[in-house]
Specification:
The protein is α+β, with helices and mostly antiparallel strands. It is built from eight helices and 18 strands.
Length: about 290
Amino acid sequence: MNQFNYWHRLKIAFQYVMPQLYLTQLAGWFAKQKWGVVTHFAIKLFAKKYGINMQEAAKPEFNAYESFNEFFIRPLADGARKIDENSTALCLPADGRISQCGHIDDTLLLQAKGHFFNLSDLLAEDQELVNDFKNGDFATIYLSPRDYHRVHMPCDATLRKMIYVPGDLFSVNPFLNTHVPNLLARNERVICVFDTEFGKMIQILVGATITASISTAWAGVINPPRSSQVKTWTYEGENAIQLSKGQEMGAFQLGSTVINLFQANRVQLAEHLSVDSPTQVGQVLAYKK
């Protein structure tokens, strides 16, 4: 038991001292390279290690991808994901597993057993947004390296604001999510604010170690380059962007985390969702109250 605890403490300590940004930049550089047979062999090894189902990809052959980046954000074949057509249902935005979901207790969200984080920290101290989502509901989905890395819309929506928040690049795997306090509110992230028939909704794309970039369908790659300041874009009037239920809205180059926030008394999270439940784009996330 002592040895077990020692190695776990060492893994946690390493996250604090390792050069997160340099490792991520190195991973980003590597993922861009087009090394032909070498790249294809590395992709094949990666797919085998993580048990990736290439038969659901639009391009199932390993040599169809010139770089790791292309492979990480590979699109799926038509029909690989069915979008629930119930007009009162919101759909899951990503493949992965539920990290946590449930009620926001005033402004506190559960990160893992014994660890909470605050809406104010998560939303870059945007007090208007904090007030909008007090006592609401949330769902956090962890995307592992084996998962499909594109993120989709839970419902029809109008984009109103996007906020880039610089931060740390801790790994967001389940072990560290359990042991690093405030992890999801301290990592780099892109906050997307939408108007929907279910009230305001926020979808947050959280960065992590060696997640080389986060992109959105309307703005392209958000990072890199990485800003040291919070950056905000607003989309009003002619600049408002309409997105449809099931439409792609963003992507990660390697796995990370998606957080959805809903206002109080607007949705009921699907009963079958609980910690570690598998998720798949298009399946039910919640229903309109």
